[in-house]
Amino acid sequence: MNFTRWSPRFPGTQRRAAARPDHSSVPAARGEYAPRPDQEADADPDRLPALDELSVREVLGHLPALVALVYGPEHRIAYLNDAYTDAFGPRPAGAAAAEAMPELDELGLLPLMDQVLRSGTPRTVKSRRVRTKPGERSYTVTCTPIKDLQEEGGVLVFAADVSDHAEAAERLRASERRLRETAVTLQRSLLPQELEQPDDLRIAATYQPGGTDAAVGGDWYDVITLGAGRTALVIGDVMGRGVRAAAVMGQLRTAVRAYARLDLPPHEVLQLLDGLASEIDASQIATCVYAVHDPNEGRLVYASAGHLPMLVRDEDGSIRRAPDPTGPPLGTGGWQHTSESIALPPGSAAVLYTDGLVERRGEDIDEGVAALERALAGATGSPQVVCDRLIRALGVTADHDDDVAVLVVHHPSRTGHAAELFHNAALELLGGVEAASRARAFASGVLTSWRFPVELHDLGVLAASELVANSLQHGVPPMRLRLRRTDRRLIIEVTDGDDHLPRRRRADPVDEAGRGISIIATIASSWGSRRTPGGGKAVWCEFALP
Question: Model-level pTM greater than 0.85?
């Protein structure tokens, strides 16, 4: 090796003056190198230290980095500096690196050194960990070709100790992992631990957080049984990342469950959520779909706040897309949401999802929704199977850059014995007080045909009588009595044209009225009331089947 034009001064090296032509003169760089006043007469500013006689071995020996010089195709040892021998011990000169230097194999350098020797191009590998005498250390290693070393050439291996940097980076990565695990745990704890399974529907959901490089988002879903066989389905996405988005999501999900208990129309639920989202954090915007399934109607009535459209797969495999969102995202304020509906007949399935499933960088989101439609057309099986197939078909992996939530709702078509467990019967209540006796006779006949036990039969007739009497006294036509049985419960419901909801009150001993709702609340498993979309109300009660 021939070091020339090396300007720094090295301790213990000899220096000799060399004359320089005028055009290559170098001025004094710093005050500390300026000659003393008594030496100014002898100093020559055109002179530089000549390094032709500089000892390369001495220079490399003082370096704190590890240095090894090897030659030939077998990388035989030509030189190791002191730092190298302190780290790995002495190695015999002339020995092949593959046999005498196992640390190079542990660092994965032997194939790299072959490439450097053949190509004549330096290569660097960063932060490789290896066992040394003091303990495990991390090194960034550069392999540089040396053409003038023997006929075959050689390789200079230069390893800088980066253990402190590697440990700091590992601590940072561990801290980020802990923060992400905290956020994922928070988000999963805010999601339903077990989905409610209504009588008429089969439901499954999947949530997958983004990859390790993606912060946790605010996707959520929920299933809420409303009573009288009706079910609310919710899916939403809080824009943003991290624990803050997950916390806002948890507040919105809790609020949705509370508003759902009021049994309001979907657009009124979103109207309440919109105001709440602004109060929680005006900078956080969220999208949401709130849908209600009524088995008597066979439809999904829904309202959408800026969310992606629901998809419905019919029994023949055809796909229908719900109309566009009925309002802007939550938190924007100043908008009146509206409700829409889409048919969900037996044999069909609806899919609600967040944008992480269909949104890709560089692609229009409509292309992602179209890809989801194609995947859904061929996805059959149970709701959980459909969830998994959609996740795979859309290319969502553990390294996906966004979190994903999918909710699949299947309305099964029942035949044979299963169909016998689901029945409906209805009676229009016409006339005056004589409608009460007709209602009792109708309820008795229906419950007898459904082969209910005597005790349940009598309780059902009593409940129907009290609900009809309450409606005849306080409601207005049109009035209807509806009985419905599923494989789990008996549902009795009375509707009328008055929108004043009944309330349970305590009747005094001398009162002749006011006990109907109290009787219903005592004998039934649950009861409730709601306003109907066309005006009026519905009052219902349920009995759990044995």
Answer: no
